[in-house]
Amino acid sequence: MDNMGTITDTATITIIPMGIEPQAIPAPQLAMMWLSSPALPVGGFSYSEGLEAAVDAGFVTDEAQTLAWLRGQLQLTLARSELPAACAAHAAWSAADLAALRAVQTWVLATRETFELRQQSQQMGRSMLEWLRNLRPDHPALPIAAQLEPAPAWPLAFALGGLALGLEAEQMAHALAFSWLENQVQAAMRVVPLGQSSGQRLLAALLPDIPASVEQARNLQDRMEDWQSFSPLLAILSSRHETQYSRLFRS
Question: Which residue among 34, 161, 162, 220 has its CA within the 20 to 30 Å range from the CA of 105?
Fold first, then answer.
């Protein structure tokens, strides 16, 4: 990676940005767990991404309906929009391609169909960027990130976080998908509500869907014209959620 540094594969991954001393980063499996951890200070726990409104509307009332809802969101929206955007952004960050990053950023923000969904993507993106500044203040991509206004949206920021930890695009996409799934299951446990055993059954049922979703995203990443986030029910529920009388989540 001429513009962004070089990656050396040893017992750990060592990222050597241009002009600064080497800095050891955990091996890929640990980096993936770190990036997908609910302890990452990006605020993902505060968003249900339409699930709370679906519960309020009576579309999701039990474990089986929660499984159907989450599987639909994973296959119909995440695999065809968020994940391809993140994979494309990973390649653009690696190449220091500001024009490509701006194109992905524009697409992501244009397809967040409600204020709260745009706000979520922007807030989590800003928080991820702040985390990266604290972790790697010398990372060569940070000056590029500063040129994206108002800040890198969530898929772009997550891709940059993955790159900073030495993850390949496919590894980063798996971490993003698992992070999304775990947050959604936690949200379901609170609003449906479901017990811990139900939550674990949901994870067990949906984990096998992640590799196929990542593979689909990788096949789409260079074909932005084929990305899509068409989910009218989600958009309607999200717009209703903005004025919902009582709610726990910000989306």
Answer: 34
Amino acid residing at 191: V
CB atoms within 10 A of CB 63: 18
CATH code of the domain in which 201 resides: 1.10.4190.10
Which two structure tokens, joined as six digits, stand for 3? 């513009």
- Split into its structural domains, the chain has a count of 1
48 lies in some domain: no
pTM above 0.85, yes or no: yes
In a domain, 7, yes or no: no
More confident residue, 231 or 11: 231
Specify the DSSP class assigned to residue 78: I
Residue 62: CB atoms within 10 Å: 10
Find tokens 């999200």 and name the residue. Answer: 238
CB atoms within 10 A of CB 199: 19
Residue 7: pLDDT band (50, 70, 90) is very low
Token reading at 249:
């989540």
Beta-sheet strands, E only, within the chain: 6-9, 13-16, 23-25
Range of the domain at 96: 62-241
Q: Tens digits of per-residue pLDDT, 142-201? A: 999 999 988 999 999 999 999 999 999 999 999 999 999 999 999 999 999 999 999 999
**Whether 184 contacts 46, CB under 8 Å:** no
Side by side, which strands form the sheet with 23-25? 6-9, 13-16, 23-25
10 within a domain of the structure (yes/no): no
**Tally of residues, the chain:** 251
